[in-house]
Amino acid sequence: MNKPLIFVTLLSLGFSLSSCRDDNTVFNEPTPIRAYETDAQILSQFVDVDNVSGRFFINPDKKINASDYIVNRSREELMEVSSFNRERFIGEMEEINGLLYSIKRSGIATAMIYSTATSNTIIQGSNTEFIEIENCGITSIGGSNVANLTVDSRRCESTSFYSQEEMTLNVSASSKSLFYYYQLSFGDTSNPDKGIVVFSGIRNHIENNSYRIISKFGNGWMSIGGENLIGDGMLSVSVSR
To answer: What is the value of pTM for the model shown?
Structure first.
């Protein structure tokens, strides 16, 4: 066999072996990352509140449904959340946590009210010389409205009303953002920020909640103002007596 023929034969054999290897090669395609909204909805169900620091955190041991005590399918869904989406979610949560932690440490809050997917929590603040805020224990209460307030990301409103020693604060919120933070200021003519009440939570988890306002100064004129610091939504507030 002459040299050119040997070269052609070896070349053909090489292509043949290469073709066989290519046919048997398995390529692992990267797993597609799920839509952020899908994973964020799962993560939001596991958000809890640390009563000491006043911060949100993800509690993987939280039971979402009654069936989770037997077959914890919710925990399995949590484990399927992509690390990329988890980090993004935690980043958004830490943005609001910084503000919550600061106001709790400052001592200016009368109360901090948190709404998650499974709970409505009040952490009492140290500034209760002007008013106190407590849970009513019921979803709604009768009485005539003496003040109405709407707070969104574009404006800051305030109004005045004649208060009594005990009144009811009715609150509902809608938010397009994942987390939200609203701040209500109660005061009088000398100081409109005597009592600060914070409402914070996860999208669309405040709906017609009622709280008791206890005025430490009895009857008299009181002002209420609102401000939205994080989130794109609206907080609706009414005071009744």
So the answer is: 0.80
